[in-house]
Design brief:
- The strands form ten sheets. This protein has a seven-stranded mixed sheet, with no helix packed on it. A six-stranded mixed sheet has the order 10-22-23-26-28-27, covered by helices on one side. Strands 11-12-13-16-15 form a five-stranded mixed beta barrel.
- It is 26% helix and 24% strand.
- β17, α8 (350-361) and β18 form a beta-alpha-beta unit.
- It is α/β, with parallel strands linked by helices and 576 residues long.
């Protein structure tokens, strides 16, 4: 697949079309190659540019592409000047003996001392993007006043010059997607919602990468094949043949989709593997298919040589079990947002502060905040915070959340693989909230990523990893009778069919995958799948699947979800 074709596919996720012109094709490919971007990275940057400049056209023309190219050149020039200023800053590394008192650790800011970068001027306009501001920590036992690029006084970041792009955003409060009765209400609860994990094993699960990673992953694959064989047998009892056994009559086999090279799947590179063998998978006779690396499948066809299985049809998997929904239970209002919570060129947490203000105006029973909280893609985070460790900054965010959000609201926090202060291997353990005052700990509930939760009598699934974007990049679709044209619903179906929040293997390049599976134990009534894709609400296999979007998108504001969970579910995705 050519780079331009990949760019077209990536733009289609955002409902954007390219004008049919060889000039625009050459220009877009030129920009992507010059910046060493993949198609997806290029489209992410382009879409952030369009949102920042409020370009609402559904068709991208040559003029817009040239303006984007000029914008990138200006950004590079600015970055070079900023780097030069940072390199000229004297860095003083101080070492001192530490006295370790019980429960007290000297902050990194006291060990490494840096000068504040000078302000830069460009075309007579002062650039305050590198300005460091005073941090006032909410008083708590053992808390101190520190210096940080994050301000935490009456609002999250009052001392930071607000982003002009964010403050001038339009459409505030606009509903951009909805489901069900958008006028539905939930009464304010007199007591907290009972919240627990459906997957009790997740509490004792070992997170990370095993010492013998290859052996563990091989064991996981074998277990997956056994599980999928058992599921197919329950649905339609039959005997499954060995992959490499010669067969001139139609037979059924079970295996995992893989690629014969390091590139992306194409109809000639698809293979099927099981415990002991690998064969080529010929899809030319298949009526319809949607496959990706790591997918566990059962397929019928013939294998006349024992080396190439000619597929005829992929067998359907039985549906995920679902708990019966209780009727007449109290409605639960859930507000959900996903990071980043700052524009990507600053550490101004005004978007999160605005969300808190909205919540306190009409408090929900539950607030779900998904990472990243300290985004690895943020330019200031990438450059390194000069006065505090990342953990200290996150701790101050937790203090602010627990100290300012209405006491009737329970806060659930979920990490993201993009959080620089947390364990990056997926699945991820929950955040440590033991440093919060004991009076607020019951209100701030950390859960692992991913998680399947029970909110009173309702189930809710959460995964902050952008699995849909990753799957969309690797999925191969074709056949004489193509599958549903709704690509998003098809991608979500893969998660439920595979019983996994991350069925892609090898994982995407931006994800470190651990040696533990990320299972979906049952079909959630509501599934939160935050993504860089366009926000949506869809019903897939009986689950209400929601992409609330990001609270910030590039340099401007994004969106969040307001959900009522009752006998009937209603969802609103709202611009911040």
């Amino acid at each position: 697949m050519s780079l331009f074709t990949e760019i077209q596919d990536a733009f289609s996720f955002y409902d954007q079309k390219l004008q049919d012109s060889s000039e625009i094709q050459d220009k877009l490919v030129e920009i992507a190659v010059a910046n060493k971007w993949t198609a997806e990275e290029f489209v992410d940057e382009f879409m952030a540019y369009l949102q920042t400049n409020k370009v609402s056209s559904k068709s991208i023309d040559l003029d817009t592409s040239k303006k984007f190219s000029k914008h990138l050149d200006l950004m590079k020039q600015k970055a070079q000047r900023t780097r030069k200023g940072l390199q000229s800053t004297e860095q003083k590394f101080l070492y001192r003996e530490q006295e370790w008192n019980a429960g007290e650790v000297e902050p990194m800011a006291d060990i490494y001392s840096f000068e504040t970068p000078k302000r830069l001027k460009q075309n007579g306009i002062e650039d305050t993007s590198m300005k460091l501001v005073k941090l006032e920590v909410i008083n708590s036992p053992g808390s101190r006043t520190l210096n940080s690029p994050v301000a935490m006084s009456s609002s999250l970041s009052p001392a930071v010059t607000p982003s002009s792009y964010y403050t001038s955003r339009g459409g505030r409060g606009q509903i951009i997607a909805s489901y069900g009765n958008t006028d539905a209400k939930a009464n304010r609860r007199g007591s907290p919602v009972d919240i627990s994990s459906v997957d009790e094993e997740s509490k004792s699960r070992r997170f990370g990468i095993s010492g013998d990673y290859a052996a563990v992953m091989k064991a996981d694959m074998d277990a997956g094949i056994d599980r999928i064989t058992s599921l197919f047998t329950e649905l339609n009892p039959r005997d499954f043949s060995e992959l490499n056994s010669t067969s001139y009559e139609e037979s059924a086999v079970v295996g995992r989709i893989c690629c014969d090279s390091a590139g992306k799947l194409n109809p000639q590179s698809v293979q099927l593997e099981d415990r002991q063998s690998v064969v080529a998978l010929d899809l030319s006779q298949c009526r319809g298919y949607s496959v990706f690396p790591g997918q566990l499948v059962a397929v019928t066809g013939i294998n006349p040589t024992g080396k190439r299985f000619v597929a005829k049809e992929f067998l359907g998997l039985p549906s995920l079990p679902a708990e019966p929904a209780s009727t007449g239970a109290d409605a639960i209002r859930v507000v959900s947002a996903a990071g980043p919570y700052t524009p990507n060129d600053s550490l101004d947490y005004q978007p999160l502060s605005d969300l808190i203000s909205l919540i306190n105006t009409d408090p929900p029973g539950i607030l779900i905040l998904m990472g990243p909280f300290l985004d690895e893609k943020n330019l200031h985070i990438a450059a390194g915070c000069k006065d505090n460790t990342f953990s200290e900054i996150f701790q101050n965010i937790l203090n602010k959340l627990s100290g300012t959000i209405d006491q009737s609201t329970t806060i659930i926090i979920i990490p993201s693989p993009r959080d620089v202060h947390h364990w990056p291997v997926f699945p991820q353990p929950p955040f440590d909230t033991s440093t919060l005052p004991s009076s607020t700990q019951p209100r701030v509930l950390p859960f692992p990523n991913p998680a399947t939760l029970r909110l009173a009598s309702h189930t809710l699934g959460i995964s902050s990893h952008d699995v849909l974007f990753s799957l969309g990049r690797e999925e191969l679709v074709g056949g004489s009778d193509p599958l549903t044209s709704d690509r998003i619903s098809r991608l979500i179906s893969h998660l439920f069919d595979q019983r996994s929040y991350s069925p892609l293997y090898p994982p995407s390049e931006d994800l470190s995958m651990g040696s533990n599976p990320a299972p979906i134990p049952l079909l959630p009534r509501v599934t939160l799948l935050p993504s860089d894709l366009k926000p949506f609400v869809k019903t897939v296999q009986g689950s209400i699947c929601v992409n609330p979007g990001r609270l910030t998108k590039g340099l401007t504001g994004g969106s969040y979800a307001d959900i009522i969970i009752a006998d009937e579910i209603s969802v609103k995705i709202i611009k911040i």
